[in-house]
Design goal:
The active site is at residues 240, 332, 367. The protein has 427 residues and is an alpha/beta fold. It is built from 7 helices and 21 strands. The strands form 5 sheets. An 8-stranded mixed beta sheet has the order 10-11-13-12-14-15-18-19, with helices on both faces. Strands 2-9-8-4-5-7 form a 6-stranded mixed beta sheet. Strands 1-3-6 form a 3-stranded antiparallel beta sheet, with no helix packed on it. Strand 18 (324-329), helix 6 (337-351) and strand 19 (357-362) form a beta-alpha-beta unit. The chain starts with 8 loop residues before the first strand and ends with a helix.
Length: 427
């Protein structure tokens, strides 16, 4: 670029936004017809670097608008307004088996955006950029409060939307990996729900026979009794093993009467009237069904197959009395979510309550259906909560369809919760 030409600039609008919001990346003041690479980089809290990049040709005005112009190469192709986020992968040379997860919701994801001359595939760190910008992506909106919960034996984090309420409530249950995962609850609180991220499988509670119905009932009651929660408008949201818990509680608990359920990548197969240890014992019986791919990564989807006919081996979903949204990845390699959804539909049709069931099933989509624009990983390291052993697990999914599914599933989740927790009568 000569001194007489304006310097290239790259804008991100808005530069501060929620992680589930769209943003626009615009480069200006380039020579027309110039080949450029737009690069996005995140330095994770685990000290790893994730990147994505697209190849573009500037238009006759010397501009590139990622929301309107097509990438002709890089980590994604075509017109993909958010491709610089959902196509992110660990940079070459990173530790194997990484999965991107935000731990500290008080801080944003900081995305560094740069534009380079020519179409590059590597060497970004050692190449001078034509222009740079920074965007902040937040899980926790301004005014959301985070409260650590340790009362009545409950371990979790409560997120409160700004304002006096009362608000609808959510009991947020993650899967068999255990630990306290907060970012989804923080995001849901940003949308107007008091959300309790519940820790129920950790090293502290690895003796799972003591984590019974009373634990989940106490958490549910805590939400009901909170002064900022509308007691009769509480939902449960389960991912993976959390779906099994949510379904079981909704059917069999005399205390838990959710207004609706959102079940992500889960199953209704579990011993009826058993504890969590009984569930894992049942899974261990089928450990022979474990498969491994060509890289010796674990495939667990067959541990619950075939779906049993024995009614004592699965939740009687025909007794469900609230609306249920099932989000299913058809390439789920970790859990038989598709087969379970089909069996649940048949059970509910026979019982006459299938009108309560909504199934959103996504081809090419794996197990980890996250909030939108989250990087997709087909496999990653996984710590088994009960044995504290580390394996590499295949989750499934292909990046493009999986990423599209995450966007659609999140919008369906928000619409479902809005309909059944707010609705016209709530206003």
């Amino acid at each position: 670029m000569s001194g007489k030409e304006p310097c290239p600039v790259i804008f991100v609008r808005p530069c501060r936004s929620s992680v589930d919001d769209n943003c626009v990346v615009l480069v200006q003041h380039l020579p027309p017809g110039l080949a450029v690479t737009i690069h996005a980089l995140i330095h994770s809290e685990d000290d790893d670097f994730w990147e994505a990049f697209g190849h573009y040709i500037s238009d006759d005005r010397g501009s590139v608008n990622v929301a309107k112009n097509a990438s002709i190469g890089g980590s994604y192709d075509g017109v993909e307004p958010m491709g610089l986020l959902w196509s992110m992968k660990p940079i070459p040379g990173s530790r194997p088996g990484l999965r991107f997860r935000k731990k500290d919701v008080h801080t944003p994801l900081v995305v560094h955006l740069s534009v380079y001359r020519d179409h590059m595939h590597e060497g970004f760190k050692d190449t001078k950029a034509l222009a740079c910008a920074v965007a902040e992506r937040w899980y926790m909106a301004p005014g959301v409060q985070k409260v650590c919960i340790t009362e009545n034996g409950i371990s979790g984090t409560l997120f409160l939307p700004p304002g006096p309420g009362p608000f609808p409530g959510l009991l947020d249950l993650w899967g068999g990996g255990g630990g306290l995962v907060e970012y989804r609850s923080a995001l849901l609180a940003s949308h107007g729900y008091v959300s309790l991220a519940l820790d129920y499988l950790t090293p502290k509670t690895s003796d799972t026979q003591h984590v019974g119905n009373d634990y989940f009932e106490a958490a549910y009651s805590l939400l009901q009794e909170h002064p900022q929660v509308c007691a009769n408008r509480i939902a449960m949201l389960g991912l993976s093993f959390g779906t099994s818990v949510a379904l079981g509680m909704a059917v069999y608990s005399p205390v838990i009467k959710p207004k609706c359920l959102v079940c992500v990548s889960g199953s209704h197969v579990m011993p009826v009237n058993g504890s969590l240890s009984d569930v894992f014992a049942e899974i261990k019986k089928n450990v022979r069904n474990t498969r491994y791919d060509e890289e010796n990564r674990v495939i667990w989807r067959d541990l619950l197959l075939p779906i049993p006919d024995d009614p004592s081996k699965k939740v009687d979903v025909g007794r469900i009395q609230c609306p249920v949204l099932l989000l299913v990845g058809e390439d789920d390699q970790n859990w038989p979510a598709l087969e379970s959804a089909e069996d649940m539909k048949q059970m509910m049709e026979r019982a006459g309550n299938s009108h309560l069931l909504t199934v959103a099933s996504y081809p090419g989509t794996g197990h980890l259906i996250e909030p939108p624009y989250s990087p997709h990983v087909r496999s990653s390291n996984f710590m088994v909560a009960q044995s504290r052993t580390k394996v590499v697990v295949v989750w499934g999914g292909q990046t493009v369809p999986h990423s599209k599914a995450q966007e659609d599933a999140w919008q369906k989740t928000l619409a479902f919760l809005e309909e059944h927790l707010y609705g016209t009568t709530y206003r």
